[in-house]
Amino acid sequence: xxxxxxxxxxxxxxxxxxLPERPIPARGxxxxxxxxxxxxxxxxxxxxxxxxxxEPALMxxxxxxxxxxxxxxxxxxxxxxxxxxVGWDQLAFNDLxxxxxxxxxxxxxxxxxxxxxIPATASCGFVTGAQGANTVGLAAARHHVLxxxxxxxxxxxLIGAPRVRVVASxxxxxxxxxxxxxxxxxxRIVEEVxxxxxxxxxxxxxxxxxxxxxxxxxxxxxQTGNVNTGACDDLRTAIPIVHRHGGWAHVDGAFGLWAAAAxxxxxxxxxxELADSWGCDGHKWxxxxxxxxxxxxxxxxxxxxxxxxxxxxLTGAGGxxxxxxxxxxxxxxxxFAVWAALRELGRDGVAELVERCCRLARRFADGLADxxxxxxxxxxxxxxxxxxxxxxxTDEVIAAVxxxxxxxxxxxTWRGRRFMRIAVSNYATTEADVDRSVAAVVRCASx
Length: 447
Ligand SMILES: *Cc1c(COP(=O)(O)O)cnc(C)c1O
What we know:
Elements: H1 2-18, H2 43-54, H3 76-88, H4 99-116, E1 123-127, H5 130-148, H6 153-156, E2 165-169, H7 174-182, E3 190-193, H8 203-211, E4 218-223, H9 235-244, E5 248-252, E6 277-281, E7 293-297, H10 300-307, H11 335-370, E8 374-375, E9 383-387, H12 391-404, E10 410-414, E11 417-423, H13 431-445
Parallel strand pairs: 2-3, 2-4, 4-5, 5-6
Antiparallel strand pairs: 1-7, 6-7, 8-9, 9-11, 10-11
Helix pairs in contact: 3-11, 4-11, 5-7, 5-10, 8-9, 11-13, 12-13
Bound molecules: pyridoxal-5'-phosphate.
């Protein structure tokens, strides 16, 4: 076991060391497949085969010049902690069988609430991603608004329930719709609110939409960090409007909620403490390994009522059952890596990480605008949208950049136009990485 884990760790460290200069795309095809082996294979041989099969197809997504999706790297202490979580193989379920995973989630959860501007009294579930966080937040919302209408949705489901309204921005993240599907609402329930010029919710239109129908149990999904533009909803204005209508305000803050941790960006999340539930990712801007995110609920008893489960063999189990705050039952102890990342960075380090990424996004925007290309969004956070002319032309440039391999950006369609989308969220990205990437994009665009 010692030699095996040492080899795995050494291989992972070698890969990580290669990232600053490694071309981003996969070098070849993955070597998996073949028939199911009948006979056992010794573990060291399995490790060797796994590395050989995966290595050619590994992408430098954790590297400093990957700007696709909204992807973080994995901080050194967080990486090591996650390897320990796997090695220790502890169960994050309750504190009878997993005292350490439960305690570390409590500790890291308290630190997260402080950094993100969420009330200390909120409960926190460690979920797999902002998708999971949206599902948990909306499950709590569903419980609360239907309970207030005299309906027990956990017992009786949605058939025959009072009709619920779900109001959300036209520019909400797609995972919100999937959460609504999973919760039995269906995606078509959404009443859309217009977004403003940069993609934040138009609060006047929000009030208009809410006023447009008879009062009903109402859930409103707001957003901190538009996935295209980085725009953040004006929570200070929007949430009181929601509450005046008796609604539940859920904030999808997958990456944008981290603005609260940086003094120069905190104004973007002003009013965040007023919300009823929040979702935020760890594997994006906090730079912890996949899969890691947080679902916070302002009323712990609502959180538990929406998700708790019990069975005869569980009664009398530990006092704290973290499995009642997520949709998973048995889970890996992902709190160790979150605790390690926050311990490694400290409050100042998180603030600096967020601010640096925003500054580097601005540097991208300035560099590409200086080269004559159109930056379409107001770069308030870490997202930049760039056009190279017609949609086809922009897609050609994106494809050329991806082939070139110096850096990697994806494409998106925003308001009917094609753009190169640049997200800066890796702790290791430097000014030199951005300058080198701008040069690569300009080179590809001028071919
Ligand atoms: C990325 C993102 C999500 C989904 O997050 P996962 O971690 O992929 O589950 C949801 N909402 C927003 C705004 C996002 O940026």
